[in-house]
Write a structure and sequence with these properties.
Elements lengths: L6 H7 L3 H6 L9 H12 L6 E5 L7 H6 L3 E6 L2 H10 L4 E4 L14 E7 L7 H11 L3 E14 L2 H11 L9 E2 H9 L3 E9 L2 E8 L4
Parallel strand pairs: 1-2, 1-4, 2-3, 4-5, 5-6
Antiparallel strand pairs: 5-8, 7-8
């Protein structure tokens, strides 16, 4: 089965990725740095904290964790993106990883925090839940999974943004908090959701069994 989002697409984007997301003032990267900053604030990075950044891209989210002295692990399925990240976060660990697959041995370790930005919208709800379920055994006691992504509070909010954007709308597997949170709670997770912009939000997932 051919992926809707092949790694080659992201390899081609790697050279211009930072410029495209940081200069963008519209959908979907409006306030890109604001979303990343909120993920970091919620995670409360500190020296020695083991952090997995899923879909790290060129490493923009990983940088502040590394600067805080965290033990940072960066995973992405695009070799070109990871090469860019290696230049920006030289002290981190880097692993080629497709999130459709089980965690490879290099990543199958405990993490105090697992973070991700602008990645999960490439997966449908079933896949989102499946990925998170695979991560839970690797979440240390008291740890959390923090996901910042294109997200809407409910279907009405999404349809309003879609209408406002017109031809600028790009249809992907965007989060709908009203329906996706119950699916995540089925994993035994405590969920905190925060809308950051009209079309981005942050999910903080805590495992009740180990908190």
């Amino acid at each position: 089965m051919t992926s809707m989002f092949p790694s080659s697409d992201f390899d081609h984007w790697a050279e211009d990725y930072d410029a495209s997301v940081q200069a963008n003032d519209s959908f979907p990267f409006l306030d890109y740095e604001v979303l990343l900053g909120n993920i970091v604030r919620i995670a409360e990075p500190r020296k020695g904290l083991s952090v997995l950044d899923l879909g790290t891209g060129t490493g923009n989210l990983a940088i502040p964790f590394a600067q805080a002295g965290c033990d940072v692990w960066c995973a992405d399925f695009s070799e070109a993106m990871l090469e860019k990240a290696k230049q920006k976060v030289p002290g981190a660990h880097f692993v080629i990883y497709d999130m459709h697959d089980p965690l490879p041995p290099e990543l199958a370790r405990p993490y105090g925090c697992i973070v991700s930005a602008f990645t999960f919208h490439h997966f449908d709800l079933y896949e989102k839940v499946e990925i998170i379920q695979r991560l839970l055994p690797h979440l240390a006691r008291g740890g959390s999974i923090i996901i910042g992504d294109i997200s809407f509070a409910d279907a009405a909010s999404r349809e309003q943004v879609k209408a406002d954007l017109g031809n600028d709308w790009d249809e992907e597997f965007y989060w709908l908090a009203s329906s996706d949170i119950p699916a995540l709670e089925g994993l035994g997770m405590e969920i905190d959701y925060r809308q950051i912009t009209p079309f981005s939000g942050i999910f903080c997932l805590m495992n009740l069994a180990i908190s």
